[in-house]
Write a structure and sequence with these properties.
cell membrane; transferase; EC 2.4.1.12; cellulose synthase (UDP-forming); 6-stranded antiparallel barrel; 758 residues; 4 domains
Length: 758
Amino acid sequence: MEPIVWTDPVFWPWSGVYAGVVVAVLAVLWVVGRRRPGSIRRPALAVSLGSALVYITWRVAFTIPEDNLAGRIAGIVLVVAEIVGLVQLAASTVIGWQRSERRRPTLDALSSIPSVDVYIATYSESVTVLEPTLAGAMGMRYPGTVTVYLCDDGSRPAVKELAERYGAVHLQREDHSHAKAGNLNNAMAHSTGELIVTLDADMIPTADFLEKTVGYFADRKVGFVQAPQAFHNEDAFQYNLFAGDMLPNEQDYFMRTLQPGKEPFNAVMYVGSNTVFRRAALDSIGGFATGVITEDMATGMLLQAKKWRTRFVPDVVAAGLAPENFGDLLTQRTRWARGNIQTARKWNPLTLRGLTAMQKWLYTDGIIYWHFGIAKLVFIVAPLLYLIFGIPVVHADVPSLVMIWLPYFLASFVSMNAVSQGRRSFTWTHIYEIAMSPTIALAVIGEWVGFSTKRFAVTPKGVSTEKLNFRWGLALPHLVLLAASVYGLLNAYVLNAGSFTINSLVISTFWTLYNIVGLTMAVLVCLERPRQRATERTDVSLPVAARLWDGAPVRGQVLDLSFSGARIALPWSTAFSTTDATRRLLEHAELDIEGIGSVPAEVRWVSESTDALLAGLSFGSLTPAQSIAVMAAITASPDWVRHDREEGARMATAAARTLTGAARRVSPSLRSELRVTARGVAQLQAPGIAATPITVHLEDLSYGGARIRSPRPLASGETYDVTLGGSATARAQVRWVQRRRGRFVAGLQFDREEPRAS
């Protein structure tokens, strides 16, 4: 007997009216939302949840196959996965229903200024990653006592030397048990501050970090305050998909949308960094939680079970490095997934005494979330069961699907945009989850069946690479699923055409095409672009006086700044012309940057533009005071932290950029010699040979070499005396030669002796 569907005569009018009303309401909300985004949040959530309930009722009551045992089992598994999604939608509705509008207390709210200990936890991170964080911490403004501790679980002499140079306290321990949590507990045993700040090794605080967080402790019941983790580099999705200008960081939705939504329920999660604790609160639970690899989630939950209040600070007061390749991102998320399950085993939120019903639900929902990998694989495999094996998983016709599923899908799309405030769309959520699902699913299953790990793995940061790298191991599950999807369509339309019912075929086809788009993007994410910069640059606008040549400094602007260098522009003027720019550059330049002071630097490259001379410089050895000043200038820039909104983030654009970018030749790292665009001619004379000099045209010039255009071929390895400007000569060797439009372009390398007058 055929199952009842909502397009049967008895249901047709009602389903048509229902679909029409929902779509009309969504259309109105969409139009209003484009003008006033915040105004449609609650209506959109209500429509989304209501349409989800209608959809899941229809799915359970009418669409599970009955004639085929395999189909019935697969259909039930699919419905269970959808019910789990509905439970999470309900939790998201509760979180997004109201915004936290609590006032932001300042230090003036305190009756007395508490002492503060700052813990920077480190194990294997490099000094180049640690130093900017330490400089930021040492530069925090605060009217009370602040002591900074470098909690070094790697016991490294270089880290101890770094701490001593900055005046911080270096802590290490012989017993490295309990990883990061044990490291922090050891710091508690060696410090006495009333408040404790935890920072990851790469999370650089702003100068006003304490000014914007400590005031919350005027409420004596506040146990900790959590600020969002933000990032000043591009994550793997942004970078590998050439989408940094379109996409926010993948974590921004949780950090800046869901976290503040949990504050009214006293369920803000401790996320391991950018947090200030009351020492008395930590003492009440015996310090940071141990025995799990996500000590942060467990610690926050235990404090809330003890009735300590928690607050969310909406301001970005610290930012760090997102995992810089897709493999490291998956390593980090695997740790989080396993850690959540470990925490549920040790401190099940549903049975933990002291938590409210809402806290129990929200923490349980957070644990369930990490099963998205399994659910997403179910959604990918389900239509393939029909296309490849003929096993139906959904018994419905196309009109029913349009009437019931489409309103639910559209409502989810609109409500996600409304709740996330532009930080996350339904489409990109699909891509993120598909990309991570195989790895996360395997980790979660492994954790539940007993293949558990208690070992804490540090996520690599500050990594630079020179080559394009396709991560075959990470892409393999997606390639297999992609191939299976293509084969399923080929089987249904070519190999066994005519063997499938039209309704199930249409539904499975569109479902599979939707999955193919996500799988394709997941494969593209596995194409790791090279990262050649050692440190991230931040756009700034700071006046500078630069002395790159002998003579008076030239005034200009710093265009971007990093902890290790700067890019500057020196405008052309009557006092500074292109003639000045052709002088020999100093080996050690000097910069006097407003707000930072005088810093030593070396010129790495120069280039002429119409309006100015552009130069890239690397800093020499800076004093701690100079480093603190540089870090303060960087963190004060409004462009330090990347934007947190999707801006024209179209999948087609990202895919096209990725494919064309991968096809381009990957340029090598910056030349070790600085080069300036050069105009004019030079003379090449073979030493010891009385022959007519060769007149060549200069293309660029540096102290170490030049690129020239020659009317006749030169041989690689030949040596010439080069006359520049009619007077200065230098010995040079031809390093390479290329033919270009009837002429020959060659690279010359000068010897390292001083140019001599002819």
